[in-house]
TrEMBL record, chain A:
<protein>
    <submittedName>
        <fullName>Pyruvate dehydrogenase E1 component alpha subunit</fullName>
        <ecNumber>1.2.4.1</ecNumber>
    </submittedName>
</protein>
<dbReference type="InterPro" id="IPR001017">
    <property type="entry name" value="DH_E1"/>
</dbReference>
<dbReference type="InterPro" id="IPR050771">
    <property type="entry name" value="Alpha-ketoacid_DH_E1_comp"/>
</dbReference>
<keyword id="KW-0670">Pyruvate</keyword>
<dbReference type="InterPro" id="IPR029061">
    <property type="entry name" value="THDP-binding"/>
</dbReference>
<dbReference type="GO" id="GO:0009083">
    <property type="term" value="P:branched-chain amino acid catabolic process"/>
</dbReference>
<feature type="domain" description="Dehydrogenase E1 component">
    <location>
        <begin position="58"/>
        <end position="333"/>
    </location>
</feature>
<dbReference type="GO" id="GO:0004739">
    <property type="term" value="F:pyruvate dehydrogenase (acetyl-transferring) activity"/>
</dbReference>
<dbReference type="Pfam" id="PF00676">
    <property type="entry name" value="E1_dh"/>
</dbReference>
UniProtKB/TrEMBL annotation, chain B:
<dbReference type="GO" id="GO:0004739">
    <property type="term" value="F:pyruvate dehydrogenase (acetyl-transferring) activity"/>
</dbReference>
<dbReference type="Pfam" id="PF02780">
    <property type="entry name" value="Transketolase_C"/>
</dbReference>
<protein>
    <submittedName>
        <fullName>Pyruvate dehydrogenase E1 component beta subunit</fullName>
        <ecNumber>1.2.4.1</ecNumber>
    </submittedName>
</protein>
<dbReference type="InterPro" id="IPR033248">
    <property type="entry name" value="Transketolase_C"/>
</dbReference>
<keyword id="KW-0560">Oxidoreductase</keyword>
<feature type="domain" description="Transketolase-like pyrimidine-binding">
    <location>
        <begin position="3"/>
        <end position="178"/>
    </location>
</feature>
<keyword id="KW-0786">Thiamine pyrophosphate</keyword>
<dbReference type="InterPro" id="IPR005475">
    <property type="entry name" value="Transketolase-like_Pyr-bd"/>
</dbReference>
<dbReference type="Pfam" id="PF02779">
    <property type="entry name" value="Transket_pyr"/>
</dbReference>
């Protein structure tokens, strides 16, 4: 294994470049079974504090149960669609736990688990996936942007929010979640470039889960890794075992604090896997091998964390039972509240297009209201 | 004092920046150069690099950055260097700028202005003369503003910067050098108000942006032939002033829409439809349109054949059935 410095000629530019390059191998603290990984030498990264890992464990148990519940609710038609993030718990939870309350999160459609971990009401968090046009929660109060459906378009927004925070003298950081497919979009590249040029406190977390719907990573990029994408823009880059909660937390905490301290943006590629289909409506048998899925399931981030904490005596049977119990209660609450038929006020259609509706919108709202009152009168007769 | 539209826009930005610290300006070449049309001239020098700055060359990035900054306390004014170079940012504009308020149920408004130098008549090479207003006007959630006078340029841009919602501010390139007597600061009619630029009784010319001077010239020429044309300048396409347009057409009974953009699926088509819907019983002739042809914007040597000019407007006015107007009672059904 070569060191980072050996990859490059010792020119004047080399130190800067070497500082941007990701570790030669993804950072990991645990092996696939949750035992300490061999040669546990990560330079700048330290094992996250036990209390943080315990919080991560609880949140991951909750997140996984929530994810299963949401998937189940699609079968009953309670959600229009649900993209599962099962297997990506370390990334989803790690992203949130690396942030302070005043930091911003920019999630995609897949990151509902991260919203729950941010403390957003789960029913509000599922508003979009229920089929609504709005995100359900207040993005300013929660410091969480609406889940983004068009790929990568939220990345430049995160740069703008982070840059604005810095200009206002706040020490807030913005963390962008994005998939491997999303890294091919132009907006991802424009955002990296802007972040670097404006030295904005942004962390880009690429959840490389192997597929963009059916298309494998080899069709997205020919680069040595997605982490290398930052280097050309002058963005410090790193890669991490995305199924190792210790490594994800260590790397992300370091990245967020580096950005907060004025170090500039950081790109982190997390190697993980989407063990469920793309959404409930996807047939993953058409594009991947059952054995591959099973192999990745054996690297389950939750099991690895549990094994690690138990081995250190930091997690007892009682702790595990309590976490599961809390998750069951959480899921039962989601189930109960999503069991109700959603109602929509048709006046809402026109309410938030502009701060003040245009005359045309007022006319259309009146027209629809009249239509509905006729219908109601007809119904009453 | 005598002022060009370009200078009035510059003054509007300067005054907005003086009044409100949260106003920031960015785009391509807007800093030291002052923009290729000099609309941001001197702003970087007066307000510093933090308030008026050059960005990397990336339109989606520029608009996306503005979205984030507007989400977090700033009032960005961004410049798209030319109409056709805003297209890389269209995804940001259509999917995010236009929808953020709605997607957040009113929690996040985006007070931002996207300035688009647009339309032709200045001998530009390809991709430098598009009339792209229909794309924006067709997208709910965007205000679309296009001044035709120097005073409006100042006043509407001030209002755009102060607006709580995103405004696409379309500046007709050939009007940058148009001059007028104006003393600044000036406040003209607010958004959503069309203005009768020239009163008349025989027909209404509805125009906006670069077509307004053409309509006024045509009206002046028609007067020599004894025909009185009223000219309505829309000023803002969104919000649209149905009331002023309809009351003018009800008075004159005839209407020609004049616009530089291609006619098919255009703002001019929308106006014609709205006038027919509202003024059917007052009309003595169908609503006609004078627009650019339905062709990609032509090269400089051919643009004079493309742009609707005074002659084409006057020819169209002549087709408004002045000589054999149908009996209006047939239109209302009263004669049956
Ligand atoms: C601009 C855009 N193009 C296409 C789509 C349709 N689409 C939704 S998800 C997806 C795959 C995205 O893959 P990736 O970025 O790897 O994220 P993942 O779904 O794996 O989390 C596609 C193509 C979209 N949402 N946005």
């Amino acid at each position: 294994m070569t060191t980072q410095a050996e990859h490059h000629m010792p020119t004047a530019a080399a130190p800067a470049e070497a500082g941007l390059l990701p570790s030669p191998e993804p950072v990991r603290f645990l092996d696939d079974d949750g035992a300490p990984a061999p040669g546990d030498a990560h330079g700048r990264y330290e094992r996250p504090p036990s209390a943080l890992l315990k919080r991560a464990y609880d949140a991951m148990v909750l997140g996984r149960r929530f994810d299963a519940q949401a998937t189940a609710l699609t079968k009953q038609g309670r959600l229009a669609v649900y993209p599962s993030s099962r297997g990506q718990e370390a990334c989803e939870i790690g992203a949130v736990l690396a942030l302070r309350e005043t930091d911003w999160l920019f999630p995609t459609y897949r990151d509902t688990m991260a919203l729950a971990a941010r403390g957003i009401d789960p029913v509000e968090a599922l508003t979009l996936l229920r089929g609504s046009w709005h995100c359900g929660y207040d993005p300013v109060a929660t410091r969480t942007a609406p889940q983004c459906t068009p790929l990568a378009t939220h990345a430049p927004h995160a740069v703008g929010v982070a840059y604005a925070a810095r200009r206002r003298g706040e020490d807030a950081v913005a963390l962008v979640l994005i998939g491997d497919g999303g890294t091919s979009e132009g907006d991802f590249h424009e955002a990296l470039n802007f972040a670097a040029v404006f030295h904005a406190p942004v962390v880009f977390l690429v959840q490389n889960n192997g597929f963009a719907i059916s298309v494998p990573l080899s069709r997205q990029t020919a680069a040595p890794s997605l982490a290398h994408k930052g280097v050309g823009y002058g963005v410090r880059s790193e890669r991490v075992d995305g199924n190792d909660p210790l490594a994800v937390l260590a790397v992300l905490t370091d990245a967020v604090e580096w950005a907060r301290a004025g170090g500039g943006p950081v790109l982190v590629e997390a190697h993980t896997y989407r063990v469920e289909p793309h959404t409930n409506a996807d047939d993953d048998a058409r594009y991947r091998d059952h054995d591959e899925v099973e192999a990745w399931k054996r690297r389950d981030p939750l099991a690895r964390l549990e094994a690690h904490l138990r081995a250190r005596g930091e997690l007892t049977d009682d702790d595990v039972a309590a976490a599961r119990e809390a998750a069951e209660a959480y899921a039962a609450d989601v189930r109960a509240r999503l069991g109700e038929e959603p109602t929509g006020d048709p006046a809402d259609l026109f309410a938030h297009v502009f701060a003040e509706p245009t005359p045309q919108l007022r006319e259309q709202a009146t027209w629809l209201a009249e239509e509905l009152s006729h219908d109601a009168a007809e119904g009453a007769r | 004092m005598t002022l060009t539209m370009g200078k009035a826009l510059n003054a509007a930005l300067r005054d907005a920046m003086r009044e409100d610290e949260s106003v920031v300006m960015f785009g391509e070449d807007v800093g030291a150069l002052g923009g290729v049309f000099r609309v941001t001239d001197g702003l970087a020098a007066e307000f510093g690099e933090d308030r008026c700055f050059d960005t990397p060359l990336a339109e989606a990035g520029i608009v996306g950055l503005a979205v984030g900054m507007a989400m977090n306390g700033f009032r960005p004014v961004v410049e798209m260097q030319f109409d056709a170079f805003a297209y890389p940012a269209f995804e940001q504009i259509a999917s995010h700028v236009a929808k953020m308020r709605n997607r957040t149920r009113g929690a996040v408004g985006l007070p931002m202005v996207i300035r688009v130098p647009y339309a032709g008549g200045i001998g530009g090479v390809e991709h430098h003369s598009d009339s792209s207003e229909a794309y924006y006007a067709h997208t709910p959630g965007l205000k679309v503003v296009t001044p035709a006078t120097v005073a409006d340029a100042y006043s509407l841009l001030r209002e755009a910067v102060a607006d709580p919602d995103p405004v696409v501010f379309m500046e007709a390139k050939k009007l940058y050098w148009a001059k007028d007597e104006v003393s600044l600061p000036v406040t003209t009619e607010p958004f959503g108000t069309a203005v009768v630029r020239r009163p008349g009784s025989d027909a209404t010319l509805v125009a906006y942006g670069p077509a307004v001077p053409v309509a006024l010239e045509a009206a002046a020429a028609a007067e020599a032939d004894g025909r009185s044309l009223e000219v309505v300048d829309l000023r803002t396409l969104v919000p649209f002033d149905d009331a002023t347009v309809a009351s003018s057409v009800r008075k004159t009974g005839r209407c020609v829409v004049v616009a530089e953009a291609t006619g098919f699926a255009s703002v001019s088509a929308e106006i014609a439809a709205r006038v027919q819907e509202r003024c059917f019983h007052s009309l003595w002739a169908p609503v006609l349109r004078v627009t650019g042809w339905d062709v990609p914007y032509p090269p400089p040597v051919l643009e004079k054949y493309h742009l609707p000019g005074v002659d084409r407007v006057l020819d169209t006015v002549d087709r408004l059935q002045f000589d054999d107007a149908p009996d209006p009672r047939f239109l209302t059904g009263a004669a049956g």
